[in-house]
Amino acid sequence: MVKMNAKAKLVEGFQIVLDDGHSHSVVVDLPPELGTGLGPTSLEVCVMSHAGCYVTICALTAMKMRLPLKGLTVDVEAVKTDEAGTITEETFNIEIKADAPEDRIRRLHELTVKNCPVDILLQKAGVKIEYNVKFVKE
């Protein structure tokens, strides 16, 4: 079992400092209509975390598979509906560069999705996630 901590402190207006208790912090805010736009919204951080988690798990999995990556880029577009009040779908555009057969890179993607904690969380929450994976042989 791993325990994680988070603290949130309102600074001014809607500027909030998030802290993990390990000397890492992020400022979140609301867009200029309500806040100052100084940082991303908390929901945007969630989407950013999903992209970051995919890249982290993919790089770890590639290392375990002894599949050297030459490049890895992930762009995520999330949709928030007024009806749901939160994210209902995400589209991942992924580019994986490696000197490996396509079937190994496809397996790398499958294992990444299967083991990405943020992906698992959002899938369980019912978020529809589409993956567009482009394999570039280097």
Task: Give me the strand/helix succession.
Answer: EEEHEEHHE
**Which term fits the overall shape?**
globular
User: Any idea of the CATH topology of the largest domain?
Assistant: GMP Synthetase, Chain A, domain 3
Low-pLDDT ranges: none
Structural class, from helix and strand content? alpha+beta
CATH class of the largest domain: Alpha Beta
**For the terminal residues, how far apart are their CA atoms?**
39 Å
The largest beta-sheet arranges its strands as 1-2-3
- Percentage of residues assigned to helices: 25-40%
The rounded Rg comes to: 17 Å
Beta-strand residue fraction: 35-45%
Sheet with the most strands, sense and barrel status:
3 strands, antiparallel
> Could you report the average pLDDT, rounded to the nearest whole number?
96
Structural domain count: 2
In total, the number of strands is 6
What can you tell me about this protein's structure?
By secondary structure, the chain is an alpha+beta fold. It has 2 domains: 1-39; 42-137, 2-Layer Sandwich (GMP Synthetase, Chain A, domain 3). Helices cover 33% and strands 36% of the residues. The protein has a 3-stranded antiparallel sheet, with no helix packed on it. The longest helix has 23 residues, at 42-64. The N and C termini lie far apart (39 Å).
Task: Please outline the helices and strands.
Layout: E1 7-12, E2 15-19, E3 25-28, H1 42-64, E4 69-80, E5 87-98, H2 102-115, H3 117-124, E6 128-137
Parallel strand pairs: 5-6
Antiparallel strand pairs: 1-2, 2-3, 4-5
Helix pairs in contact: 1-2
